[in-house]
Amino acid sequence: MEVRGLAHRGYPLKYPENTMLGFQKALELGFSHIELDVQLTKDGVPVVIHDATVDRTTNGTGAIQSFAFEEIRQLDAGSGEKIPTLEEVLLFAKDRMQVDIELKQTGDTYPGLEQKVIDVIKQTGMEKQVFLTSFDHYSIQKARSIDPDIELGLVIYGATPSIFPFMEEIGARYISVKYVYVTPHFIEEVRKRGYQLVLWTPDDEAVLESLAEYSDVLIVTNNLEGWAKVYKEKNVLSKQAGNM
Predict the structure, then answer these.
(1) Residues 200-223: pLDDT tens digits?
(2) What is the distance between the alpha carbons of residues 207 and 205, in angstroms, rounded to a whole number?
(3) Comparing C-alpha atoms, which of 60, 76, 78 is closest to residue 11?
(4) Which whole number is the average pLDDT over 18-25?
(5) Closest among 207, 190, 216, 218 to 100, alpha carbons compared
(6) Is 8 annotated in the active site?
(7) Nearest to 222 by CA among 208, 241, 240
(8) What's the pLDDT tens digit per position in 125-141?
(9) Exactly one of 8, 33, 137, 185 is catalytic; which is it?
(10) By three-state DSSP, how is residue 219 classified?
C-alpha cells in the first residue's frame, strides 16, 4: 500500500539524511513523496543537503558555497554515502515519487539558485512531479517570475491568514506549516481556498494518529515507520467500515 506522506530528508531516523540511500529506503517503505533541501556549490551545482555547512552531516567542515562540486563529492555523508546532486535525486524519483524541493535560499546567499533548480527540473522532465518551497518567500516569488507554471509552496512557522493573498498573487498551491500551530479552523480555511496543506514535522505516534483524520493533509515526518503504521491502519479501518 502506498503511504501518502512526505519522507523528511529521506529516512533520517535510520539512514543518513538527504542521501540516495535514505530516499531509496523511503520508496521501499511506500512513501508517495520525498522532501529534500537544495543549496549551491561554489561552481553552481544544485546539491541536496540541509545545512549551510557540511559540518553536521558529513566528515568535512565548511560552508557549502566554499566547495566546488568535485570537492564536496569527496565527503562522506554517512555510511559511505555522498552528497547527491538534485539531478540524481530527481532521476531516481522520476515516475516513482513526488518531490518537495525546499530552496535553502537566505536573502542573496545563492545567486541564481532558483534558475538553476528550475533548469534541472526541466532537464530531467520532472515538471509534473515536483513543487518548490522555501521559508524565503522572495525566493519563491522569483521562481514564479522564472516559470509561470511550476508548482510553488510557502513554508511558514506559525499559521497566519496573511499568507493567503500572497499565495493567490504568485499562484502558489502548497502551504507548509509547523504542525503545532494548526487548528481545525485553519485546516478548513485552507480547504475552502483550494490549497494543499503540508504539516511539518510531527514524529510522535500519538500526534500522528491525531492528524490521520485529516486525510487531505500531507504529513512531513522523520518517523516514517510510525506514519506508515498509522496511515495503513486508518485506511484498513476505513475500508472495513465501507464494506459494512
Answers:
(1) 999 999 999 999 999 999 999 999
(2) 5
(3) 78
(4) 98
(5) 218
(6) yes
(7) 208
(8) 999 999 999 999 999 99
(9) 8
(10) strand
